[in-house]
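User: Design a sequence. Structure:
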């Protein structure tokens, strides 16, 4: 079988198109990379949000950036549910806190609780109602046909994880704060938001501006030489 015979998208023919972007000059590439490194080095996970409104288009654009992520067989197995309704966010918080309470009372285990202590977290999650937006990311475990039949998706966890990383990057570069919240279990989210049976909640991401009195843990990231292995 040759490359031209390969049909990854369910029988659709392989139809290559030219991709020849203009090569960026080295000095511009270095400057852009250094600036991105600096800006992303300022990113922090925020748990104290202002209720002030944020430009909605910036959130839309960040989700659009996330949806450009690479995915297994280009199946794009993600759905981003944008929740602004205060009553829905109240219900999400109530259900999430109920699950978190059980977790902090023993379901997580002492080793996990010990790892969380430097973050100062507990079962109370005000960010779910204080932030003006919640982006609830669902992974499509399989494709659901109109007739109810299913078609397998590939590398779903990896694909959606990459998309969430790109979403957090886009939000930060737009001047917005975010938090990756993963109450466990999250089955209540699909039921509450009326999602189809092929979708499973992956992460809840509050989005907004940091509160005026926002504080974050005094943590330090690993240096480049601690994470990079050059061979």
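Assistant: Done.
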């Amino acid at each position: 079988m040759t490359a031209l015979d390969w049909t990854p998208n369910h029988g659709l023919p392989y139809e290559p198109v030219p991709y020849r972007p203009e090569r960026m000059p080295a000095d511009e590439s270095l400057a852009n990379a250094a600036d991105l490194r600096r800006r992303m080095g300022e990113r922090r996970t925020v748990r104290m949000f202002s209720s002030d409104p944020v430009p909605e288009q910036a959130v839309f654009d960040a989700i659009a950036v996330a949806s450009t992520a690479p995915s297994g067989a280009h199946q794009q197995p993600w759905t981003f549910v944008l929740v602004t309704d205060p009553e829905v966010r109240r219900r999400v918080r109530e259900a999430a806190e109920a699950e978190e309470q059980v977790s902090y009372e023993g379901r997580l285990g002492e080793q996990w609780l010990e790892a969380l202590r430097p973050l100062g977290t507990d079962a109370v999650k005000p960010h779910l109602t204080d932030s003006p937006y919640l982006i609830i990311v669902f992974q499509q475990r399989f494709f659901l046909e109109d007739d109810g039949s299913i078609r397998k998706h590939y590398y779903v966890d990896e694909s959606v994880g990459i998309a969430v990383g790109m979403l957090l990057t886009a939000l930060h570069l737009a001047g917005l704060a975010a938090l990756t919240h993963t109450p466990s279990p999250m089955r209540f989210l699909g039921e509450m938001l009326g999602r189809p049976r092929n979708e499973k909640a992956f992460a809840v991401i509050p989005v907004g501006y940091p509160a005026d009195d926002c504080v974050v843990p005094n943590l330090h990231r690993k240096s480049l030489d601690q994470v990079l292995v050059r061979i």
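The CA atoms of residues 147 and 177 lie 41 Å apart. Confidence is low (pLDDT under 50) at residues 1-8.
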